[in-house]
Amino acid sequence: KRRKRRRRRGGAKFLERETKMGTIQRFLAIPLLSQSHSFLAPPIKPLHSSLHLSPSNLKLRSISCASPTVSTTMAGIKVHGVPMSTATMRVLAALYEKGLDFELIPVDMKAGAHKQEPFLSLNPFGQIPALEDGDLKLFESRAITEYIAEEYSEKGEKLVCPGCKKVKATTKVWLQVEGQQFDPIASKIAFERVFKGMFGMTTDPAAVEELEGKLVKVLDIYEARLAKSDYLACDCFTLADLHHLPAIHYLMGTDSKKLFESRTKVHEWVKKITARPAWAKVVDLQKKQ
Amino acid sequence: MAGIKVFGHPASTATRRVLIALHEKDLDYELVHIELKDGEHKKEPFLSRNPFGKVPAFEDGDFKLFESRAITQYIAHEYADKGNQLLSLGSKNMAILAMGMEIEAHEFDPVASKIGWERTFKHSFGLTTDQAVVDAEEVKLAKVLDNYEVRLGESKYLSCDQFTLVDLHHIPVIQYLLDTPTKKLFDERPHVSAWVTDITSRPSSQKVIL
Questions:
Q1: Is residue B60 situated within a structural domain?
Q2: Set of chain B residues whose Cβ sits within 8 Å of the Cβ of A19
Q3: Which residues of B touch A57 (CB under 8 A)?
Q4: Of A75, A157, A185, B117, which sits most exposed with the smallest number of CB within 10 A?
Q5: CA angle A127, A131, A134 (to 5 degrees)
Q6: What is the pLDDT along chain A (289 residues), one digit of tens a residue?
Q7: What is the phi/psi pair of residue B49, to 5°?
Q8: Is B80 in Cβ contact with A143 (below 8 Å)?
Q9: Residue A233 within any structural domain of the chain
Q10: Which UniProt keywords apply (chain B) (predicted)?
């Protein structure tokens, strides 16, 4: 499919550096680091079934990061996290999209379980979620969703754009945009408007106003993008859209929803992605907790 | 072949991230200078290349990208059979790489970049280092580097025993920090220190330093 030239319209955005704010656990106790655990399980060797061999691949000098002992079992997926956490929700959404069975193992955030062993063996950065699939252990929600999308590419919904490497590269652009441009701002607003209340803290209206001023600039860019493309990366729903769901979910329950509703294409996109059955299951799981 | 163009600034860490990848792959490219101090990145025609107004933007023939970490991944995949291998094949290996790239982007870079801003870039703009910020960020960086120290005690590079994009993505910010007192955080951790020496002495890393 020939890539269409896209003309971008976007407002100027002030270049600044800000610390990414992720999920709520960043605001809890300073992580207790264990010195005895590496953040990765022993390196794994690819199984033949998971190594996509083709004549051109065989000629490549392939790096193997693997050892021979890994296995994945059909019932082997475990997610360590809580349904309230945006990063956990991101992973759950991907699992539901793929129709995969998994076990959600709760982590007692209030007791600081994520900052202690045994959780630190799963993620020494002390953040949920972590995932186990047989012997494979991963953390960082966006790496986990990417793994799910690739490893189980034949199952459930497609979460990648069909097509050549250039299309995949465009997807990576919008995956980065979510992680680097959208989420740092949106998560901060969600923290101010939603999570602070849960911890008995008060929303800072000045902070919200400043953050919303930044978010509208990002959403203006999204508005232009979505006028040319049904979804962010291409005309199919992909991880680039999915990754936004948790923060959007929280913001749409606050006054900040006006920022999305006042932009036609963005609003249509929000309605489409939040109406997906897989997302409804994530929200449902959260309600049950 | 219309060729590869990078629209950026030679001092920008994100631009350097892309240039290092191009050098690793022995690819020819043209660096189109975007004058940051004139705000060129916040105006047209640059905004058509990246509406978020940040360098670098990238072009390979008529294919356009932005976000340095998406660009490096494109380079690594598209030119997989050229120069040095920067990836690892297979979905589980790629998952481990993806995890390493996320760690760099979300755990290491925000902290390290803040220190770089305070200690180095602020001076270029006639601003003063805020020592309180530096102190606070160094505490966070130390914790990240403690994790890296454990990991690099078991593996020669971050994701596996070969140099990959995961290591590459760290290089530009580390290069700046090595010229500041923050260097001590790297020096005092032996595995991290050896890794830093290794990755910053690669020919491709040397080529981007002015």
A1: yes
A2: 110-111, 114
A3: 89
A4: A75
A5: 150
A6: 444 444 444 333 333 333 333 333 333 333 333 333 344 444 343 333 333 333 333 333 445 565 434 444 455 899 999 999 999 999 999 999 999 999 999 999 999 999 999 999 999 999 999 999 999 999 999 999 999 999 999 999 999 887 777 888 999 999 999 999 999 999 999 999 999 988 889 999 999 999 999 999 999 999 999 999 999 999 999 999 999 999 999 999 999 999 999 999 999 999 999 999 999 999 999 998 7
A7: -90, -35
A8: no
A9: yes
A10: Cytoplasm, Detoxification, Transferase
Domain that holds residue A263: 165-277
Supply the pTM of this predicted model.
Answer: 0.81
Considering the domain architecture, whether residues B97 and B196 belong to the same structural domain is answered as yes
Q: Is residue B147 less than 8 Å (CB to CB) from chain A?
A: yes
The domain boundary residue, chosen from A152, A185, A219: A152
C-alpha span between A107 and A124 (Å, rounded): 14
Paired with A79 in beta bridges are A104, A131
Q: Specify whether A224 is located in the same domain as A257.
A: yes
ipTM score of complex = 0.85
How many domains does chain A contain in total? 2
The reply to whether B86 falls in a domain is no
Q: What is the pLDDT of residues B76-93, one digit of tens each?
A: 999 999 999 999 888 889
- CATH number for the domain harbouring residue B30: 3.40.30.10
> Residue A146: inside a domain, yes or no?
yes
Q: Do A62 and B85 touch (CB under 8 A)?
A: yes
The whole-angstrom distance between A288's CA and the closest CA on chain B is 30
Which of helix, strand or coil describes residue A132? strand
Whether residue B102 and residue A140 make contact (CB cut-off 8 A), yes or no, is yes
* Cβ-defined contact of B48 to A7 (cutoff 8 Å): yes
**Residue B162: its chain A contacts at CB < 8 A?**
63, 65
Q: Which of A1, A156, A21, A140 is nearest to B103 (CA)?
A: A140
Residues within 8 A of A (CB atoms), B 6-45 only: 41-43
State whether B63 and A169 contact (CB < 8 Å): yes
Tell which of A152, A177, A197 closes a domain. Answer: A152
- CA dist., res. B197 & res. B118, Å (int): 23
Which residue out of B7, B50, B85, B91 would a mutagenesis test of the A interface target, given it has the greatest number of A Cβ atoms within 10 Å? B91
A228 chain-B contacts, CB cut-off 8 A:
none
On whether the CB atoms of residues A159 and A237 are closer than 8 A, the answer is yes
Which pair of tokens denotes residue B156? Answer: 């020669």
Concatenated DSSP letters of B174-189: HHHHTTSTTHHHHHTS
3-state class (DSSP) for residue A185: helix
Whether residue A229 is found in the same domain as residue A189? yes
Q: Does B105 touch chain A (CB under 8 A)?
A: yes
Q: Which of B111, B147, B165 to mutate to test the interface with A (most CBs of A within 10 A)?
A: B147
